[in-house]
Amino acid sequence: MALRGRRDPAPLAGQRSRNQNTMGDLHTRKVLDLTIRLAEVMLSSGSGTADVVATAQDVARAYRLTDCVVDIFVTTVFVSALPTADSPPITIVRSVNARSTDYTRVAELDRLVGRITSGGVTVDEAHEAMDELSERPHPYPRWVATAGWAGFALGIAMLFGGSWLTCLLAALTAAAIDRAGRLLNRIGTPFFFQHVVGAMIATLVAVAAYYFAGQGPTALVATGIVMLLAGMTLVGAMQDAVTGYMLTAVTRLTEAMFLTAGIVVGILAGLQVAELLGVVIELHVDATETFIMPNRPLPIALAVIGAGLAGACLTVASYAPWRSVVTAGLTAALAELVLIGLGTAGFGQVVASGIAAVGVGIIATLISIRRQSPALVTATAGIMPMLPGLAVFRAVFYLAVDEEFTDGMRQLIAAAAVALALGSGVVLGEFIGSPLRYRAGRIGEFLRVEGPPGLRRAVGAVVALQPADSAAPTRSGSQHASSVALEPALGDDTDTGTADGGESDSRQL
Questions:
Q1: Quick one: which of 115, 111, 87, 99 has its CA closest to 24?
Q2: Cα–Cα distance between 20 and 31 in angstroms, integer?
Q3: pLDDT above 70 (res 11)
Q4: Where is the composition biased (Polar residues) (predicted)?
Q5: pLDDT tens readout for residues 275-313
Q6: Helix (H), strand (E) counts: the chain
Q7: Domain regions of the chain by residue span
Q8: What residues contact 495, with CB distance under 8 A and at least 6 apart?
């Protein structure tokens, strides 16, 4: 006896992946080596764990390795081909230790993955492209990146309403922090101490400006804090938590908190040095004022322009392609305009920041669909001007100078809430915009560029991909087998699910 109706597919647990190794061990090893290399580049650039796993599995499927297992534990990448009746399992492990934010490399990797998943690229050709991509130096000199950080600080100082002298000092301070960090990184100094030194430089410059020129130290120190916070992967951490990679998410968030503690230590050290030199800073800020928005046309215009400048210059400092600079700047300016509008309407900082970040996530998704820029680049640049640098400075000042523990903790909690709202808001925006990637009617057809995606954004309605060519793969003699095109493995009324032949489920993607 059986009830009529459509049945859900059988669970994947316990199913056989392959009966025999039809591709040969050499081909399998080449494919696994290729997937772990591109996973290393993505992970070192701050991509979410789910994105790395989905992209690596797409590349493996394009080379007919449909049972490739990809797993990431914090900074260790595992790729494996499951055993068959005539071959043992093949596993490769690699640790990602170096961090090098180069968004040009990310964009080139996006195009390479798109070529592979469109078909016609041999494994050897893909390895040669990876050699060229990974061994190529940064696209422009280091002084250009330093100038980008200076422009970023200039924009943040404008955003905070600083005077022309404050903006100039902020740019020079950012350049000094970047060069000091470069030197410390060259000799292998841990990131914690690099943040301590950077925050101390910002604090001492602010104290000197206060003592000699009568400039308020708030905007200068807050600008340095935002610059140091810009390197933290809040978006990737929140995406890992949402997509189920909790250990990696907790590790990233803990690292962000630890580096923030380094900023606090640097500010405290700078204030202590000022006190030893006899400089007493008189700063009185209401601890309940955590969200102060400009309310006149000129300050609003300067804040929006400053946010756009900061977003654009951040992409330059991160070695992004030049065509990404304009889109990143416009996204950051639009997000700041939305933030100011919501603040004027009476919304709190956490809610307003979260809503603005949702808009950033949607815009980043649309731009990535059009293949103008990877979503990671736009999303990171869009939220950086909204990071809570003022709240962190106020918290440290209350704790170190005024010795007001309650007010200081209130500011720290407010800063943490804003940071989490920004990270989770971007992920929610990508979740809302994810249906536009496939099967979204006329809007999706208008936005989406034909062909399979490059680097995946594994948030929301993630579509499983399978080889479009169903012909039987060649035997192990084909060491130069070309990749085959991938197509969505869509059901009748869902965008997610499993592909035929025991593909990984949508959560793994």
A1: 87
A2: 17
A3: no
A4: 473-482
A5: 888 877 665 554 445 566 777 888 899 999 999 999 999
A6: 17, 5
A7: 15-137+481-509, 142-434
A8: 435, 438, 439, 461, 462, 463, 488
